[in-house]
Write a structure and sequence with these properties.
Two copies of one chain form a homodimer.
Chain A (H helix, E strand, L loop, with lengths): L2 H11 L16 H16 L3 E4 L5 E5 L7 E7 L13 H21 L6 E6 L13 H7 L4 H5 L9 H7 L11 E10 L4 H5 L3 E7 L1 E10 L16 H19 L4 E10 L9 E10 L2 H19 L5 E10 L2 E2 L2 H14 L3 E6 L4 H5 L5 E6 L15 H20 L1
Chain lengths: 407, 407
């Protein structure tokens, strides 16, 4: 058992620890700063070069092949949901740190000169809990999101991401001087697929499509007492109707889609004022991109009609569409063969959740490796993976990186 | 036209002025402090004695009858809704100030010795926008709410009312040394009854009953991606279903009840976490107390059953019931006779909205006098009453106070 891995996971879980054993470590918070600062120390202690880029992504670079800038990246994220567990993200960063260290030691012990460099990464704001959209740091690095747009993202209180990174001293000035050639990410599954099949390692081949809409319902403020019911233009009543409609359509579609309405803001949010402006964040996820899109489009048509009789108008505030993404097939084959060689049972599978690996795949071939999650529970303090299963993931990650830098 | 009244209203509307011409002056805010401080100056300028009690109620006492502690109170509130207008509350306080001044002048001019004293009051947190329940200061003064409970009320960010009053220097140490014998409040109607009948003055006889419930829906946080739909326990989905049900029941009852679900808080409120804890504030108002109670009770039974299939439990966080309240009939008769003597058309009417006069009536006989509101619109920046109508209300208030202190 890798005592070091489990100690690191426990230590990092103390930053933002909640009373129920979970973690609340929002991007740019004091807890995030504490976790980042310790990661910086751990990076330095292993003689990796620390570099923070303009969107706060932290790199720990192992200069294994000084003749080239070609670099294999490995990592995940240290930010969490408000109701996060201790493995989501942190596991990939901390196992990545130990895997990089192990590759360095192995190269030294065997006196082998790797063909390229290796760098650990902690991506900024993967969760999208405080700032939307999610996968922020990895999307900027991959070139899918403009730096200025990312820095300007505002949280629910109007604080910008750039401002938040400045406040914790984690806003760098330049990208790292590396040429990324591959990305590998190890993560807990957050679903129950591996648990159900009894397999130890998941090699992720592709991601479900997701349509993420946030809608603003606009009514009119009035007194909740004397104003006649028929004269009210109630934006929260409209939002409730929209949420009900959204679930009704998903169920009626019988497509197996996953959908949610998980964030809501209401103004003025006083018990005695008819709500005049309510925003709701909806998600539609499906394995087939056309299905996710059609569900979202149908909803948009029906919701307009559903809220109009309430005197409430609707506008689309954000409309983010993530197509189904294929991860690099060579990476999948490598994960499967490494797992097989180490004696672990491994399967191909898809991910429903978004991951930094999906953002990276748009720039370099990327691999995503899963280990089982108990009951598929995630974004929950009770999120859990057995120590032995975490160790197997670390072993697969280390061997994968070794092969990538030496082949 | 009382230029002084309209200047005062315009001046006070600048504290918390919003870009659409409305007012946002929440209890204990910097804007509330500014309005309170100017009221203190205006009280002193008229040689009234300023006194702030332990819940922040501000008194401006005219010692017209030094031989007795008996005092007629007149007032309303300076706090507003986030989307408030410039008349709701402020009108009653500022007209009250001028009425007290006018009574003092008249007594001096006619060399009449009033039989009791007169005091202007600005009640704390009438609106219940920042701290719930509403009518806080008047309820403490009337003995309907314990001071410690009121001071401990917390806003949405966990700041206590006592703490907020301390922060603006408006938490006094003792009640004023007066024996209240009557309370008179002048207010804009906030409904369309007077506008429809074409009358100038409303003498309020009674208030509708109100049942105010806040319910907590408790589910379980999970990832909005991979977690199977059937395994989710979604508190926001339950809340939306409850809000829809609530309006369906109100419409089906065909009782003419007024109802609302106007405030909602959701935790963790991240787009990617199934909401685990959602609180919604519901109101049921009806002229007949039994009807309001029955609507609330029916809802409580049905909502339990409606959300259970979602794996979401429900608990009652607050359950505030305000019976129909009769205002002092002598006060109604006095308002009607004063209005008649001044040549204004006046009618008896009920109030749907809560007012400090209703809290006061539990301790001393109270009167509530309405002037028309355009389109019945209130808690809205467009709230409006004609200057001439405001003047008529001031004339009725002044004459009413004169008769009360000299009869």
């Amino acid at each position: 058992m890798s005592a070091q891995l489990h100690e690191l996971i426990a230590t990092f879980a103390s930053f933002g620890a909640t009373s129920d054993g979970g973690v609340c470590r929002l991007t740019g918070s004091a807890e995030d700063a504490a976790a980042r600062n310790l990661l910086g120390l751990e990076i330095g202690r292993r003689r990796l070069r620390l570099h923070v880029d303009p969107i706060g992504n932290m790199f720990g670079i192992a200069d294994l092949a000084p003749h080239t800038r070609e670099t294999v990246l490995v990592g995940s994220h240290l930010d969490s949901q408000p109701t996060g567990g201790r493995f989501d993200g942190s596991y990939g960063v901390l196992a990545g740190l130990l895997a990089v260290e192990a590759v360095m030691s192995r190269a030294a012990a065997r006196q082998i000169r790797p063909k390229c460099n290796l760098a650990l990464v902690n991506w900024t704001n993967e969760e999208g809990a405080r700032f939307q959209p999610s996968l922020t740091g990895s999307s900027v690095f991959a070139g899918n999101l403009a730096l200025d747009d990312a820095l300007a993202l505002a949280d629910g209180n109007g604080v910008g991401l750039g401002q938040a990174l400045d406040a914790i001293g984690h806003r760098g000035v330049s990208p790292p001087a590396i040429d990324p050639v591959r990305y590998v990410e190890l993560h807990v599954e957050q679903g129950a697929r591996l648990e159900q099949s009894g397999d130890e390692i998941g090699a992720v081949t592709a991601a479900w499509a997701a349509c993420k809409l946030s809608l603003i319902f606009q009514g009119q403020p009035s007194h909740t007492g004397p104003m006649p019911m028929a004269s009210r233009r109630d934006a929260l009543r409209a939002a409730a109707r929209a949420i009900e409609l959204h679930y009704r359509l998903i169920e009626a579609s019988a497509t197996g889609a996953h959908a949610s309405a998980a964030r809501i803001t209401s103004f003025p949010n006083s018990p005695n004022v008819t709500p005049s402006r309510v925003q709701v964040w909806f998600e539609f996820r499906h394995e087939v991109e056309a299905t996710a899109v059609q569900l979202a489009e149908n909803f948009l048509i029906e919701v307009q009609a559903a809220v109009r009789p309430l005197g409430v108008s609707m506008e689309i505030a954000t409309d983010e569409r993530r197509g189904t993404a294929l991860l690099d097939p060579e990476g999948v084959a490598l994960t499967l063969s490494v797992a097989r060689d180490l004696g672990y049972s491994a399967i191909e599978m898809k991910t429903v959740a978004g991951h930094d690996a999906l953002a990276l795949q748009k720039r370099v071939p990327a691999s995503l490796i899963f280990v089982p999650s108990r009951d598929g529970l995630s974004h929950n303090a009770a999120e859990f993976t057995e120590a032995a299963a975490l160790d197997k993931g670390l072993a697969v990650l280390t061997e994968t990186l070794w092969r990538l830098v030496t082949r």
